[in-house]
Design goal:
Helix content is about 40%, strand content about 20%. With about 230 residues, it is of the alpha/beta class. Strands 3-2-1-4-6-5-7 form a seven-stranded mixed beta sheet, with helices on both faces. Helix 1 links the parallel strand 1 and strand 2. Helix 5 packs parallel to helix 8. It is globular. The protein starts with a strand and ends with a helix.
């Protein structure tokens, strides 16, 4: 049976990465966890390694899409003749990453080529939903399918599906681009409810800059797929 590798892009997540790695390693079918330390200034990489992850280090911050690509390449180097499925998890999930099993099951059973998490417990966010609406409407216009949580980064997919979507959309546009590209190519995409939760984005200026970058990257991904 094909195994699953969990890939966790991480930047300055020393407080939570250990718990996230431990939870990912406990998932049924997961036999490898790769953390991509994307230019962290803290002890993220060392803590991830101590928790049992293989660690790939970027000397500078290259963004989420690049971290996903690096993680997938690292898994490829460790794969045998039967490539592992790829489970992407956010670094700040902590122990709630243990509830990711429902994302793996449809892919492992051959019922879906990619699953996307829908968080049952919604965290109150500091924004107004502009980026989510942009992504949701963009996916709907491009494919006819309306995702519930289009920006959710918790996803499991086959190696074949991942390769079909490369090169990935840049930065925070990666999820939007991934969904559109796979649906257009006939891959089966399914949303799955999970009990995960991650840190909510706040309302300070750093959070607003983060949302502006998200909006920019999603808009670029959509523009490239018109």
């Amino acid at each position: 049976m094909t195994g699953t590798a969990a890939i966790i892009p991480a930047k300055d997540e020393a407080d939570r990465i250990g718990a996230t790695v431990a939870a990912a390693l406990a998932l049924p079918g997961v036999d490898l966890v790769v953390v991509v330390d994307d230019g962290s200034a803290d002890r993220t990489g060392r803590i991830a390694k101590a928790a049992g992850a293989r660690v790939v280090r970027h000397d500078r911050n290259r963004g989420k899409a690049a971290a996903m690509e690096s993680g997938a390449e690292a898994v490829h180097l460790l794969d045998g003749p039967d490539p592992r499925h790829l489970l992407f998890l956010d670094a700040d999930l902590g122990e709630t990453a243990r509830t990711a099993a429902p994302l793996i099951e449809p892919v492992a059973s051959g019922e879906a080529d990619m699953t996307i998490a829908v968080f049952v417990t919604r965290v109150r966010l500091g924004g107004h939903g502009f980026v989510v609406r942009l992504a949701r409407q963009g996916v709907e216009r491009a494919t006819g399918w309306t995702p519930s949580q289009p920006l959710n980064g918790q996803r499991c997919l086959t190696r074949a599906a991942f390769e079909a979507a490369r090169p990935l959309a840049r930065g925070f546009g990666v999820e939007t681009g991934l969904t559109i590209d796979l649906l257009r190519k006939g891959f089966r995409v399914r949303e799955v409810e999970v009990e995960m939760a991650h840190r909510a984005t706040g309302t300070d200026w750093r959070a607003q800059v983060h949302r502006a970058r998200q909006f920019r990257d999603v808009a670029r991904a959509l523009l490239a797929r018109r």
